[in-house]
Write a structure and sequence with these properties.
mainly alpha; binds zinc ion; single chain; 128 residues
């Protein structure tokens, strides 16, 4: 199982919130709390080390989207500022809440498939 081509796509498992090894077990036990072990293949998920790595990417992406829409509404359609904020703040909030678990799942899956770790060692032990 050390060949990464045997694992499901990290994009699919990460976005679905599934285990990076089997693609079936749930990755999270809460909104963003990673489960201790995969209930299907028993992979030790407590060793994941994605942390808050997905957040900077999302800040740049979603912030850009929100500011872009805000500028279009404010300058292009001459909306009052309260209307711009009434649309863009919920938009940014919803996009953030929807995308954080998916982006974190993607980073965990990429970490598993690429055998990445802080010390150059594989974070996930294959024998777990
Ligand atoms: Zn699994």
């Amino acid at each position: 199982m050390s060949d990464p081509s045997h694992y499901p796509s990290p994009w699919v498992t990460g976005f679905r919130g599934r285990c990076p090894r089997c693609g079936e077990g749930r990755l999270y036990s809460g909104f963003l709390k990673v489960a201790e072990r995969c209930p299907v293949c028993d992979l030790d998920l407590s060793k994941e080390d994605a942390g808050d790595g997905a957040v900077p990417f999302l800040i740049l992406l979603i912030g850009g989207i929100g500011v872009g829409f805000g500028m279009i509404f404010l300058l292009g359609f001459d909306w009052p500022i309260w209307a711009v904020l009434a649309v863009t703040v919920p938009l940014i909030t919803v996009l953030t809440l929807v995308s954080i678990p998916k982006a974190k799942g993607l980073l965990i899956a990429l970490q598993f498939v690429n055998r990445a770790g802080d010390t150059g060692q594989n974070t996930f032990d294959e024998n777990d």
